[in-house]
Amino acid sequence: xxxxxxxxxxxxxxxxxxxxxxxxxxxxxxxxxxxxxxxxxxxxxxxxxxxxxxxxxxxxxxxxxxxxxxxxxxxxxxxxxxxxxxxxxxxxxxxxxxxxxxxxxxxxxxxxxxxxxxxxxxxxxxxxxxxxxxxxxxxxxxxxxxxxxxxxxxxxxxxxxxxxxxxxxxxxxxxxxxxxxxxxxxxxxxxxxxxxxxxxxxxxxxxxxxxxxxxxxxxxxxxxxxxxxxxxxxxxxxxxxxxxxxxxxxxxxxxxxxxxxxxxxxxxxxxxxxxxxxxxxxxxxxxxxxxxxxxxxxxxxxxxxxxxxxxxxxxxxxxxxxxxxxxxxxxxxxxxxxxxxxxxxxxxxxxxxxxxxxxxxxxxxxxxxxxxxxxxxxxxxxxxxxxxxxxxxxxxxxxxxxxxxxxxxxxxxxxxxxxxxxx
Length: 423
Description:
Elements: H1 3-10, E1 27-31, E2 34-37, E3 42-45, H2 48-51, H3 60-70, H4 84-96, E4 101-107, H5 110-127, E5 134-138, H6 147-152, H7 156-159, E6 168-172, H8 180-191, E7 196-201, E8 205-206, E9 212-213, H9 216-228, E10 232-236, E11 260-263, E12 275-280, H10 281-285, H11 306-319, H12 322-342, E13 348-354, E14 357-362, H13 373-384, E15 387-388, E16 395-398, H14 406-422
Parallel strand pairs: 3-15, 5-6, 5-7, 7-10, 10-11
Antiparallel strand pairs: 1-2, 2-3, 4-12, 8-9, 11-12, 13-14, 14-16
Helix pairs in contact: 3-11, 4-11, 8-9, 12-14
């Protein structure tokens, strides 16, 4: 029995309808931007394995940092203790985050980072004796799969089964070009009711919606409106963080700084699950009290895992190297050239680029669902051609590791061109 056949017997995969899914490729090795399955087939990982591997697979710097930590202290509980790697990582993160961020809360995945932020926003108001129990989010947002994160997401088929069991969230239009005023007015009307604890958003790029992009200027205005009405702002940078938009954080494009940031995915270079929620001093002070019941009672067994912290420190060091910053600029230039080439194609509706993120929307006569027939046709075509891409309906996006070569990226573009011609 093959590895893929055993997998089909035993495992339940994410976002997968197993009745209509065949055998899955069994990946046995990775190096740089490449992966190989157990039949020796080579794949270009053009989405950095769900946006987590910016420095490539089997990166020796990451491996050495993890090995060294494992031989010193693999894990210690963070409840009632601390350790040098957590202190060092917090110190490093606070040096690169927006300057208003003062406190670091560790968890283990992006959904949980969002969950912590939402709970903090709600409990802060509770601790202050204010009844603010609602959240504002963008339409078509995706913030994760835990209950608070799921409630804040706007992709309905992910959440349909759980209606009535979720936080109360009101969604507003995304301020894409032409909708800035509508979105700003909708937000203003909501925050003026004094019923909302927080506004959560994916800054500049909505990932799971199909890399929907909007300008920093309008987000700055929206944050200012929230600050005026004492509504916390939560920047979900799980996808956009650590270089994806061309700067370390998408929030670095903003003049007005969010109150909280959620980080995960590339935080540890794709090696060990870890997440971070960061806070202003004001929010932390809302829990700092002689009354123990006002503490933030949230925690995880692997909170601030020393090995994960060591991996994150190595990842941030790699990101800051001149070579990696040059790679980010190189990929952006290649993306812009490819977008320019494809935007006039008769089968292409739009192209868009932010940092290392490229998206292309294929013209369709009818609305294409998230996991519809076109998406599956495209996905299978890419896998057959040895390229890992996960289209969203009729939108093909590329978000490669920063170490992808010029030649590898050009090969990906060529296969995307073939796919556009095919549909």
